[in-house]
Amino acid sequence: MKRSFPTTTFAVLGLMMSVAGTAAADHSERNPNVTEVNPGDTVKVARIPDNIYLRTQDDPDDLIWDRLPVYRTGLTTAPPVHPSVMLRFDPTDMEAKHLYFQVAKSKDRFYIRLRWKDASEDRSTTVDQFRDGVAVQYAIAGPETSYMMGSGPDNPVNIWYWRSDQEQIENLAAGGFGSTTHLPEQTVTGASEYFPEEIAQDSEWHVVMSRLIDEDGEHQVDLSRDTIPVVFALWEGHHNERDGNKKVTHNWIMLDNSDSQ
Amino acid sequence: MTVKRQLSMVLDLNKCIGCQTCTTACKLMWTNRNGREFMYWNNVETQPGKGYPRDYQNMGGGFDEAGALRAGRQPSQEDYGIPWEYNYEEALMTGTDPWLRPNVKPTWGANWDEDQGEGDYPNSYYFYLPRLCNHCANPGCLAACSRNAIYKRQEDGIVLIDQERCRGYRYCVNACPYKKVYFNEQISKSEKCIFCYPRIEKGLPTACAQQCVGRIRWIGYRDDTEGPIHMLVEKYKVALPLHPEWGTQPNVFYVPPLSPPKYGPDGEMLDESRIPLEYLESLFGDGVAAALDTIRTERQAKADGKGSELMDTLIGYNHAEMFKLS
Amino acid sequence: MGSDDKDLKLGSVDPALEGRFEVNGIKVTTVFEQVKKEAAKYTPEKTQKQTGLHPDVVRQEARHIANARKAIIMLGYITSSYSNCLYTAWAYALTLALTGHGGRTGGLDTSWVVWNHPKWTELSTFGGKKSARYEAGGLGEVLRGGMMEGIRNHFDNKKLKERVGFDIDEMEEMIQESIDEGWMPYYGEIKGMIAVADNTFRRNKMAEKYREEHLRQASELYVNVNVRMDSTAEWADYVLPAASHYEAWDLRTQGYHRFCNVFTESVPPVGESKPDWDIMALLTKKIQERAIARGIGPIQDGDVTRDLHTIHDDYTNNGQLMTALDATRYIVENSPEFGGVTLEDAAERGFIVLNEHAGTNQPLQKDQPYNPFTAQTDGKKPYETLTGRITFYVDHPRFVKLKSTVPTARLYAGPEASNYPLHFYSPHTRWGIHSNWRSNKYMLRLQRGEPNIYINPKLAEQRGIKDGDRVRLFNGNGAFFAQAKLYPSIPADSIMMEHGWEPHQYIHRRPMNNSHVTLLQPLELVGGWGHLKFIYAKWNANQVIHESSYDIALAKPEEIADPRTI
Ligand code: SF4
Ligand code: SF4
User: Fold this and answer.
1) What's residue A9's pLDDT?
2) CA distance C364 to C375
3) Residue C117, Cβ neighbours under 10 Å: how many?
4) Which residue from A126, A128, A178 is facing B146, i.e. has the nearest CB?
5) How wide is the angle at C-alpha B259 spanned by C-alphas B254 and B262, nearest 5°?
6) In chain B, where the domains are located
7) How confident is the model at residue A261 (pLDDT cuts 50, 70, 90)?
8) Is the per-residue pLDDT at C1 higher than 70?
9) Model confidence over A6-44: pLDDT tens digits?
10) How far apart are CA C458 and CA C455, in angstroms?
11) Which of A100, A229, A235, B41 could form a disulfide with A143 if both were Cys (CB 3.0 to 4.6 A apart)?
């Protein structure tokens, strides 16, 4: 594993990394095949052999995912940047939320699969209920882009956002806080499923998102380049999380997308 | 938040009869459809009472003394009241239902504690408080929006939500201490009173004011020194904002209600007004006593045939003088 | 002494107000003496126990009226729902007379003031030639609707007599006497029914009996003309859909103000519905056709004939008034009180200001209040009474019998005349006009969504009732269910329920009016004594509908369950 530390937001990163190692509330799994990944680490994009046929393009429970490497990373509370987020920010909440992710590509499609433990399936958006959600954010340029919603309009990010109340993935772009915009080209597909368990804490969301590797258009992440910086964000509706009230990866994880083995 | 001009409304609580014509005018114009059924951009509640949404005065929001946003409790659908439907067809046409009734057991609504108030007979007391968005000078809703979706119009200070920018975070619902922003579940966006701006732009008053049976509402610009708002708010200081301590600087003002005297145990009249002054002050701040004194004095002057500019305005002889929209 | 001029000028006469005199050997006294003597029985100290009002409050109020430059006492319709209304109203008149309030300084006002609309009357009475039969409303409803049975079930005869001065047997006797003497007209059973603009099966007391009686009597034909499926339309053989507000040309005026509102057909009537006028034009057309075909000629009815063979021609003024628009135009453009305005101008403005011709007792002056009876106070025109003056002495035998020759006071029946302890009254609803809009969902969402009663929190606590609970209200005639709403502004021994709920909105469709009784006040049924004779809308008996009482209990789940679940 190569380590590359971008220079931005170093202080925050240091703090979050130290807690990521200690908390293990939803980390009961001791699967030796799961690799712990920290922000700054690089992981390999797996290759789905050409002879494997996926019955359903974005099946969140397809057998193929049992055969591909699984990574785990700890997400912690995003630093509040708006008074409304600040109001709901709990500085004592140091607990890391563990997100399991897998990245793979076929000849023409790029896939990312996410799963995490969530004791409640929150699908409704009502006056006082918030939905679950997960997002993958890509730097359109390199890792010098701020992992916090991009570095202004000139250095934006592309975001794939899944929300529990619908089955389509929103393809968004942002260039700084409060600038999130729905893109005219909705190119990302996906599917999700909630797996309830008898012990509620062990219940899981599984989400798959995918896109054609060759997609043109402004703000569409280039999925053909060798290195793709990515971070994750997670919203648990049960905890009234929305907008900046979320847990995130505190700095880019680098996806090694090269064809080298 | 400075704007070029600010529209404003004054409501005289001495004249409100609680008829809900304003509520209904607003409902039929703006909120009887498309996920807005539970919303009352204009509601009339009985005070003292829990109001609408239920117990909103204890939900938080607004600003603290240092001017920072205060978090509040998010109202639930139950707090607003579930807009029940009726089995008209089954009960009246096909005869398959035994009687006409709501499809859910009503447990709360926008006017649930109507006429309840406080006190024991014969010294019970209550009054009606019509409420709409205050189109505040320092809107809590606007400050709370992380999307910059809420703005104040330069030309009239009306507070609006840009429906393109809103992503339904509900921070505004929480931040408005008056609970005058509502979340539309059908479209996952927040919506609120628009001060009937399409009417205002045509020189017409809001529907609630136009239809007001008690003629309790005046509309005008704050800076119009010839207009009714200036006279009631600035000159005579009889119109006061609701809960000024919440820090949003409302542009809707209320003339507080006078009340008859209390009765003693033998039915004798006591020298004590039915609605306690402290209670009114808890709603409208320190200016209440002076405002009530002014109204009493001016009323007497009018009754004595001495004439009163203030009373002539409060009587509301004609709409042209009550609504000054230019 | 005396004058041949029919006016109120006293001239040189100085009438004695007080004193005892002997005239031709007969000892006489003045009305004022008798009034004073009677009034002395009711000092504020003595009435305090009944009214709960401190004597100081009563005196203060009396002085307030006396000192006022102008004082008008409004006799609302609620007062006339009590059997002692006549006494209350007479006392109001006395108060105003004693404090000098008449004409420009005030007087008595009622909710029944109407303006002079001769063209309206012309159309509704076939040019005054064939006026409809009128009855004293309450009398007809009570007798025809079989309400006496419920009255007997509810009241305790002895207690009733103590409270109101007559018992049920005496009331029945006096009713019969009024009919026999021809004081009040009553035409007996009906044969068919065409009902327009009256939700009569909702409104009337002892509702179920009343409805059954009417459906039995009108079993051959019952037609209802209606804008909605109300509790009266539900039972009709035919419902003819009527155009609603804003779908038909119409005019509305009433005595509280001097305007006539002009309704235009803003939207065409929904579906097959038609304005009432057009429906009647079509009905009369068919009736006339059939009458001619069957050779039916004039039918004598008292002084007039009923002419089914010309009914359409009469109704439409020989084909000139075929539609609501025709009738509206005719009234607007020919009514003297509208001053010759065209229908187009009136519709454009939305209302017409009535001119001096609208005044019934005296001209309605522009920019001046319509003060009560200035024709009498200023113009010295006699009042339309036996003496030509306001009357404070009536020696009609029934007034003598009920010890009511001068203004006095009586209690109303209420719980003390029955075995049910709670006062009960049903004021007008604020959520509609009677039952209009009562079942409208937008209105209901601003209430409790279902029929509710108002109860003092102390009484509720005593009976284990919480806000929102379903309760059972019962008396000698049955029970109904409603939601309880706490209301500290009502005394702890009273229940209030707004009227107007449709029977079909109640649990088991069992309305308040099934168990709610009424009475008639025999004094209101007298005739043959000067101005005290049947005159439509001036002297006729109404049901006194706030005389009933109830007891209350928490409803049991099985009592209010949907019958289909059992
Ligand atoms: S009343 Fe509430 S919604 Fe209206 S402007 Fe003020 S804070 Fe915003
Ligand atoms: S219409 Fe006017 S009088 Fe009626 S409730 Fe509304 S504010 Fe009060």
Assistant:
1) 34
2) 11
3) 22
4) A178
5) 150
6) 7-83+108-322
7) low
8) no
9) 333 333 333 333 333 333 445 555 566 799 999 999 999
10) 8
11) A229
- Cα B132 to averaged position of ligand 1 atoms, centre (Å): 9
Q: Which amino acid is at A246?
A: K
- Structure tokens belonging to residue C461: 């606590």
Q: Which of B282, B195, B291 is nearest to B239 (CA)?
A: B291
Strand C71-75 and strand C106-110: pairing? Answer: parallel
Considering only alpha carbons, which residue of chain B is nearest residue A88? B71
- Identify the pLDDT of residue A28: 52
pLDDT value at position A260? 67
* Contacts with A, B 141-160, CB within 8 Å: 143-148
Domain ranges of chain A: 33-256
The mean per-residue pLDDT over the stretch C140-147 comes to 94
| CATH code of the domain made up of B7-83+108-322 | 3.30.70.20
Token pair belonging to A122 = 């929150």
């300084």: which residue's tokens? C105
CATH architecture of A33-256: Sandwich (2.60)
Read off the amino acid at residue B135. Answer: H
- Ligand 2 geometric centre to CA of B142 (Å): 28
Each residue's pLDDT tens digit, A46-100: 999 988 888 888 999 888 999 999 999 999 999 898 999 999 998 888 889 999 9
Question: Tell me, what's the ipTM?
Answer: 0.96
Domain regions of chain C by residue span: 20-114+371-401
Quote the mean pLDDT of chain B. 97
Q: What is the pTM of this model?
A: 0.91
Cα distance between residue B274 and residue B252, in whole Å: 25
> Which residues of chain C lie closer than 8 angstroms to B91, CB-CB?
504
Which tokens belong to C214?
């009417």
H-helix or E-strand containing C154? helix C148-154
DSSP C133: P
Q: Does B32 touch chain C (CB under 8 A)?
A: yes
Share of chain A above pLDDT 90, in %: 68
With contact defined as 3+ CB pairs under 8 Å, the chains touching C are B
Q: Tell me, what's the pLDDT at A29?
A: 53
**d(C-alpha B207, C-alpha B212), whole Å:** 8
Q: Which of A88, A127, A178 comes nearest B77 by C-beta? A: A127
Residues of chain B contacting C441 with CB distance shorter than 8 Å: 84-86
Residues of chain B contacting residue C450, judged by C-beta atoms under 8 Å apart? 101-102, 106
